[in-house]
Amino acid sequence: MIRTEAIVLAIGKMNGCFDDPESRSFKLCNPLMLKTYRPEKKCDSEHYRIFSSVMGGFKAGVADLQAKCSGKNNRLSAENTLKDLLSVYGFNHEATTRKIILFLRRALTDESVATNTPIGWFLETVIVPAEESVNAG
Q: Looking at residue 124, what is its pLDDT?
């Protein structure tokens, strides 16, 4: 599992993108609920981007995260924390943040993931190996 992809999965899960057909995130195929103000991008009346596929929304989410985690975004730098990043995506409630942290710990098999983890850490190209039992039938 690539770390930035794990964040997209965690936030997408909280937004209901993958398992709640009634959620706005699911309907827009937009796991991170990305917004745009560029006229060439398809969006709804509140500027949430509309993707034609979940994969398209997923890839855009990864690109958005990479920009934020690397400091190529005017709101965050690599030294900001995971808590800061989640706040940008609208997750300010402690219980929700905790669920995302627990998801990331399991997905990345790394108990050190915490609200104070610098977001630059998520850019490191460490691929978490899948367990052998995943392929067992």
A: 84
